[in-house]
Design brief:
Structural class: alpha+beta
Helix content: 10-25%
Number of strands: 16
Oligomer: single chain
Order of helices and strands: HEEEEEHEEEEEEHEEEEE
Radius of gyration: 29 Å
């Protein structure tokens, strides 16, 4: 019996060895597949980068109701299809997500340092703030008002163009984009309500927008922007409604002292026809400027910083009117803002400021603001 058992056992050994070999091959194959999947997942994860920002505001307005507002919460992502084709997009949930807006969504085709292509929903390269307006990047709770009423930040349009760095420190952007819609222009808000936000936007009129920047010296940032295009959008009652906006800005930091200045002017054609069609006495010339001084107080041996600032703004959305239209002095406004911003880390700022408003009617009022802001 023992002999028979040994014969059976010996005869079974080759079959067992074959099955063991098969199992080893399968395990090795599965292990390789798992490694490949892990590598693919790691590569995909490295292609996606999330970013965003947000800001909570408390506004105590003299002779008006106080307000608490989660003004913005923005979520964005950057996805690299390849090293040279990149998607960049942001969605803005405003006023505690009661309003949603596509901030931008564009494809970049990277060719070389001096010449690259961009297409999609693009932030207009006008002023230093419209493209880079994350709240910790400026010191007041609210954005400068010139960059609301004269440069309608955030301002995005659909289009395509080129960008790059011509020489060290000298950068440019130049795009052809959808034009504004003059039927939305107002005497108080200028061109702001003529933005179409790339939402089934009228595109009978296109526009050119460009910006040149120089950042070649430490602490210095100089910029100039130009926009021109029609805004009638094939509505003959609005005439041509051509819009031309020019802007210059500069920032300089020496030691702990930072100085900022901006001037902008907008000219609009056929404002008499816009008035006849909409009833809005839109200024054919609109101007605004501001200067700001900030002093940075660093905390020793840490990234904490306190910034004390003061800003003076003047802007008039009816600087000049077509003959026959009547100017409203209330649209000639001055704002002086003083305050401070505390940065426990560079990406987070707690702000407090005090605004003093005055307009051409000699009406004046004050606003106290608090803000909690972040970006990542």
């Amino acid at each position: 019996m023992i002999f028979i058992f040994l014969l059976i056992l010996i005869s079974a050994v080759p079959a067992f060895a074959d099955r063991l070999s098969d199992m080893e091959e399968k395990i090795e194959h599965l292990t390789n597949e798992l490694e490949e999947l892990k590598m693919e997942r790691t590569e995909d994860e490295s292609k996606i980068h999330f970013h965003g920002y947000g800001e909570l505001h408390y506004n105590a307005i003299e002779s008006d109701e106080n307000e608490m507002d989660m003004h913005r919460m923005v979520i964005g992502l950057t996805y690299s299809f390849t090293d040279r084709i990149i998607l960049d997009a942001e969605v803005d949930f405003e006023h505690a997500a009661q309003e949603m807006e596509l901030e931008f969504a564009h494809l970049d085709f990277l060719i070389n340092d001096a010449f690259n292509i961009r297409a999609g929903a693009i932030l207009m390269p006008v002023g230093y703030l419209n493209e880079y307006h994350e709240p910790p990047l400026f010191y007041s709770v609210e954005r400068p008002y010139v960059q609301k009423y004269l440069i309608p930040t955030s301002w995005q349009e659909g289009g395509a163009g080129i960008f790059g760095e011509i020489m060290p420190g000298l950068r440019y952007r130049a795009y052809i984009v959808g034009g504004l819609d003059a039927s939305g222009f107002t005497a108080k808000d200028g061109i702001r309500k003529g933005r179409q936000k790339v939402s089934e936007a009228k595109a009978e009129d296109l526009a050119f927008v460009g910006r040149l920047e120089y950042v070649g010296l430490p602490g210095l940032h100089l910029g100039a922007s130009f926009y021109t295009g029609g805004a009638a959008q094939d509505d003959p009652s609005l005439g041509d409604a051509d819009v031309t906006l020019a802007e210059v800005d500069g920032k300089y930091r020496i030691g702990n002292l930072e100085l900022i200045g901006l001037y902008t002017r907008t000219d609009i054609g056929d404002t008499d026809k816009i008035f006849a069609a909409t009833g809005q006495a839109v200024g054919e010339e609109q101007t605004g400027w501001y200067t700001e001084a900030a002093y940075h107080i660093p905390f020793s041996s840490s990234k904490k910083e306190l910034v004390v600032f003061a800003r003076r703004e003047e802007f008039d959305t009816q600087k000049e009117l077509s003959s026959g239209l009547t100017k409203d002095p209330a649209n000639d406004r001055e704002v002086t803002t003083t305050g401070l911003a505390y940065y426990p880390i560079p990406e987070v700022a707690i702000k407090a400021d005090y605004e003093m408003w005055k307009d051409g009617t000699e009406n004046d009022f004050n606003v106290f603001n608090l803000g909690a802001t972040y970006m990542f």
